[in-house]
Amino acid sequence: MQYLGVLRGAGDLKCEDEILARADYDFEGFLTKPGGVTGGGELRMPPEALRLVFGRVDLHLLTDDGRRLRLRFSEKQLPPASSSAHVDVTGDLPTPSEWRH
């Protein structure tokens, strides 16, 4: 795997067409063979909202710049009062040349 850089911003956390909450994100991207891009990193939102969505498998993030990213929580448990969680990211990720280093 080759490190591509970071992707930071905010967006709407959604399930199908329903907006569940606003979230901030900080993801790192990696080039996988043969030529795929995958990511992972931190999703931040108010603790109450995070507790409601934690563990769901039908989530995507519609970023403010128009990307639709599929999210999967990589942790098994959410610490109490946590406002962030680690997620694995796929979907409409930038091409390798679009990541910030």
Protein model, in words:
The protein is mainly beta and 101 residues long. Helices cover 7% and strands 56% of the residues. The chain contains 1 helix and 6 strands, in the order E-E-E-H-E-E-E. It has one helix spanning 47-53, and strands spanning 2-15, 18-32, 36-44, 59-63, 68-73, 84-91. Strands 1-2-3-6-5-4 form a 6-stranded antiparallel barrel. Strand 4 (59-63) and strand 5 (68-73) form a beta hairpin. The protein starts with a strand and ends in a 10-residue tail after the last strand. The relative contact order is 0.28.
N-to-C CA distance: 16 Å
Count of beta strands: 6
Arithmetic mean of pLDDT: 93
Unreliable residue stretches: none
Strand order of the largest sheet: 1-2-3-6-5-4
Largest sheet, in brief, is:
6 strands, antiparallel, barrel
How big is the Rg? 13 Å
Strand content: over 45%
Total number of helices: 1
- Helix and strand run: EEEHEEE
Shape: globular
Summing up helix and strand content along with how strands pair, one would put the structural category as: mainly beta
Q: What share of residues is helical? A: under 10%
